[in-house]
Design brief:
85 residues; two-stranded antiparallel ribbon
Length: 85
């Protein structure tokens, strides 16, 4: 039971970070600070910002895949009662 609560807690945190990344990427306020002057790695700000957000989402989804979603249903390490198909 302790392991199941830990798994559910990890799953909630993963979903939080995924939704946070999407919310930041889709935030319309970024258009108000979209200027050419602040430069990130030679890109205008909005391109640099989107590059960092893309990198963030790739890392979060890789961690989520490695921790939970990458295990097949019949895998010995899969959680008991796992209803994924």
């Amino acid at each position: 039971m302790l392991q199941r609560n830990g798994t559910e807690n990890r799953k909630k945190w993963l979903w939080f970070f995924i939704l946070l990344g999407f919310a930041i990427m889709e935030f319309p306020g970024i258009l108000f600070i979209n200027r050419i002057d602040p430069v990130i790695f030679g890109f205008p700000f909005i391109y640099g910002f989107m590059l960092f957000m893309w990198l963030y989402m790739c890392i979060v989804l890789l961690i989520a895949y490695k921790i939970y979603w990458g295990k097949p249903k019949g895998h010995p390490g899969a959680a008991k009662g796992d209803n994924r198909e």
